[in-house]
Design a protein that fits this description.
The protein has about 80 residues and is mainly α. The chain has helices spanning about 20-30, 35-50, 60-75. Helix 1 crosses helix 2.
Length: about 80
């Protein structure tokens, strides 16, 4: 079976739609009202960047939400 190379985004461009990041940030900001909105946005962006090298992208929004929730919960407890 021949595997074709996956197209890579241009440098500095993400492969995820912007609305996904906004939706995740809004959802998590509501779940963690004591966290600053800027911090929530940063945590979500960092979580998405963590999965940038992934080839299978179907579950990334779910994994990002889980990772960001854990990170925000740890910060709120601290």
């Amino acid at each position: 079976m021949t595997r074709w190379p996956r197209p890579r985004p241009a440098s500095g461009r993400s492969r995820r739609p912007r609305y996904t990041t906004i939706r995740d940030s809004t959802h998590l900001a509501a779940a963690f009202p004591s966290a600053a909105r800027d911090r929530v946005d940063t945590v979500v962006e960092e979580a998405y960047h963590r999965f940038d090298p992934a080839h299978v992208r179907d579950f990334i929004p779910l994994l990002v939400e889980r990772h960001a929730k854990e990170s925000l919960a740890a910060q709120v407890r601290a």
